[in-house]
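[INFO] parsing input record for Coproporphyrinogen dehydrogenase HemZ
[DEBUG] input buffer:
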Amino acid sequence: MTIRLETNEPALFGELADVIRIFYPTSVKADEGDFCIRHEGGIQEDSWQDRFYALCFEHTYLSPRRAVGELAIKRERKRAAKTGLFLLLRTISGQSPAWGSLTGIRPTRLLYERLEAGDTPAAAALYLREKFFVSEEKAGLLKEIERMQRGLRTVPPGQFDLYIGIPFCPTRCAYCSFSSGELGDGKLVEPYLAALAQEIRACGAMMREMGLSVRAAYMGGGTPTSLTAAQLARVLDEAQAAFPGAREWTVEAGRPDSITVEKLRAIRERGVERVCVNPQTFSDETLRRIGRAHTAQDTLRAFALAREAGFAHINMDVIAALPGEDLPQFRATIEQVLALDPESVTVHSLAIKRSSRLHEELVTEKSDYAPPESAAEMIRFARESLRERGYFPYYLYRQKYMAGNLENTGYAKEGHACLYNIGNMEETAPVLALGAGAVTKWLFARERRIERAPNLRNIEEYIARVAEMVDRKRALIGGDEK
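[DEBUG] output buffer:
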């Protein structure tokens, strides 16, 4: 089904389309559709006025105009229109979405805004419930995350977090849209690693010149363990020589089929204590369906190898609402994860990204996806089970096109929250990002703004133009007066 959206304020089209997708995860277009939602926005005295028409329904929403300053006015206008449409669609559909009218990636940001304004955590959560119609359950989740992040959210002056990207995978998962490529014949790996080493050295020297030091480092991808043990050792040696003294190091081993004793030893011998072993599911049938070239037994083997190698912190990722899976299958995955007793667990809601194979299957109705209420049951079961075993939510983010309009949540035992994840997701830490497709995000604290310097996504172009990637970062970070 396609919905046609008409509005006399084109700048609001994207925001209004996001609200429609909360209720109807479908295509929204300006020029065609199976039925039309029409918006007429304007001003009535001291209020924003938004009229909406859909099917036989009509709704008018008035919201006070109080903001001062261009950015504040723009945000107030956007929120007023979104709220009006949300209320209409809630009436038409009979649904009460758990995250209310929120469509952004970081709902914790709104909670922190209220805390900075002087609210208590309880008052801030109540504001989200009343202003944005967030459910009591999700507002409580945000309060728990705020508690876990105390003392970990901010970065000392002069420090940054480091990301190193390895854009290769053994195979491409059906849900993936990341900037990565299958290993294939491996011809690009060595040229890529040479270019990456060049970027690491140059940026390490640049940061030392500026008097900046690393706080937390994260090697992700892709799948870093798609490299050989010798290649992994080489990248880590380069990184740790250029950026010494990190308080935390993580390597995203990820795919169990890529994990070997030699690779784990190479990682652990270089002081890395946190590694990720990601089953996604313990159903072999589902693993085949989503293009993961490993079995549940491979995950058990990889986890045992990581423990034997001496890793004090193992994280595991699982995905709720994978195609063909129901609550009993997801329950079995969570129970198996808990039996392994990792230090942290990340629970994802399936996000069907436009450039993924699953999106194509959704369009052609070739896959069997869990309905929203089933996805919500899975997420609730995971949260309750993890809490019973001493895991607490410590970071959260949302994506477009997520199953059930839900969220991704990282859980950890006390003392095992990942600093890099908190700083990156909350955007409270400057992130120096190296490698193809990596995006440096630099915080300018005095001006309360964030600027980005993206690296080229295409691996061959990155190799050819790596010096330019360094120059982009120098131009960005050199403007920070710290």
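[INFO] The radius of gyration is 23 Å.
[INFO] shutting down worker
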